[in-house]
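In these records, each integer encodes one residue's backbone shape. Here is one protein:

___
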Amino acid sequence: MPWGWTTQPPARHSGLSQEAVTGLIVLVYFHIKLERDIARDYGTELKPLPNVPYETRLSIIHRIFKLALPVSAASIMLPVVSNLDLMIVPQRLEAARLQHQ
């Protein structure tokens, strides 16, 4: 680039799917471990509180994903915005005919 401006290659976020799978595996592991610990310490005859609806595992997983999606989207947007800034700012400085000294 003219006037001594340097650019950096865009950051890669290829580990996103591996991070999601690893996080899911960790959650499932802790769920199974907690379930076994409860069965060992308190037995399997635990009864839910009266007038409290039973929640299935699928509905719990659904709630986790509903909560995790906005957090994941926000963590993805940070490198995207940084890369856009990296591309736009030098071009705008060139358009304004500013020189790097």
Observations:
- The CA atoms of residues 13 and 64 lie 23 Å apart.
